[in-house]
TrEMBL record:
One of its GO terms (cellular component) is plasma membrane. It is found in: Cell membrane. Residues 68-279 form the ABC transmembrane type-1 domain. The lineage of its organism: Bacteria, Bacillati, Actinomycetota, Actinomycetes, Bifidobacteriales. Belongs to the binding-protein-dependent transport system permease family. It is a multi-pass membrane protein. One of its GO terms (biological process) is transmembrane transport. Keywords: Cell membrane, Membrane, Transmembrane, Transmembrane helix, Transport. This is Multiple sugar-binding transport system permease. Pfam families: BPD_transp_1 (PF00528). The keyword Transmembrane applies. PANTHER family: ABC TRANSPORTER PERMEASE PROTEIN, INNER MEMBRANE ABC TRANSPORTER PERMEASE PROTEIN YCJO. The chain crosses the membrane at residues 6-29, 72-93, 105-122, 154-177, 198-219, 265-282.
């Protein structure tokens, strides 16, 4: 590399690396160091080194384990529904569907709404909106306040997350579908491939790169969801929707167990890293080139 090119690369990459280091790497390393101490987060109070005690306590913490189980249930439901719905709509709008552009725009709009605002909007819908619909239709066995029911509250969280993210996933799938050569589709149709056979044997293998990206994004975001969880249910009722990030937040900022909460955060990071890296490795192997 020429010295002049090296200077230009440093000019453009340097600020980004500095910001990433200050915002991500430094806090991450500090968080790991805090996980080995007993501390309430107040700078004036001393930190007491206790080794792996926080990690041992976290692994036997029943509330943390319950939040892990709920997070896995939520993630499984949100990932499957988001990708299925996003792919179905992507296939529809890339076909000869009328008003495809309008459908694409309106379907993508929920993603532009922030998680906190979205949670408050749907909190109003589930409480007041569902009550009105239930009274008008008489279907109160469906249209009741889901957020007050420990079982339905988690389903409500899955529903809202799917509603918000499916539009963004749709855009990724549309990009993948549009890269498929049209002559390849026409040749497959001439050979008798139609409907499900055309999708499963021709289109889906060719959009696997888009599927890898969408699955990675939805998997990592579902594990890390916090803002919608906070504004929609705040972990309730009775901690029925307290997911990983919410549990860590409560441990640090409500209970004042900074070191213990950081240990949970490190375990949380390891779990997310294992699942996302395994997912990318598996789906990458199924990608095919044109």
């Amino acid at each position: 590399m020429k010295r002049k090119d090296w200077y230009w690369n440093l000019l453009f990459v340097g600020p980004t690396v500095c910001i990433f280091s200050l915002v991500v790497l430094v806090p991450f390393v500090m968080g790991i160091s805090y996980s080995f101490v007993s501390w309430d987060g107040i700078a004036a109070n001393a930190k007491r080194f206790i080794g792996f005690t926080n990690y041992v306590s976290a692994m036997s913490d029943t509330r943390f384990i319950r939040s892990a189980v709920k997070t896995f249930i939520f993630t499984a439901g949100a990932v499957v529904l988001t990708n299925a719905l996003g792919l179905i709509v992507a296939l529809l709008v890339t076909s000869k569907m009328k008003l495809a552009g309008v459908v694409r725009t309106f379907y993508f709009m929920p993603y532009l709404i922030g998680g906190l605002i979205l949670g408050y909007i749907w909190k109003f819908i589930f409480s007041d909106g569902f009550a009105i619909i239930g009274n008008v239709t008489g279907w109160k066995f469906i249209f009741f306040n889901w957020l007050l029911n420990p079982t339905f509250a988690l389903f409500a969280l899955i529903f809202v997350s799917t509603w918000q993210t499916a539009g963004y996933v749709m855009i990724i799938y549309i990009s993948g579908i549009q890269t498929i050569p049209q002559d390849l589709i026409e040749a497959a149709e001439v050979d008798g491939a139609h409907g499900w056979k055309l999708f499963w044997h021709i289109k889906f293998p060719l959009i696997m790169p888009a599927f890898t990206i969408s699955l990675f994004m939805t998997l990592s975001n579902s594990f890390k969801i916090f803002d919608t969880n906070l504004s929609l249910t705040a972990g309730g009722p009775s901690n029925a929707t307290e997911l990983f990030a919410m549990n860590i937040y409560n441990e640090i900022f409500l209970n004042g167990n900074y070191g213990y909460g950081q240990a949970k955060a490190v375990l949380f990071f390891i779990i997310v890293a294992i699942f996302t890296l395994a997912q990318v490795s598996i789906t990458k192997k199924r990608e095919v080139g044109l």
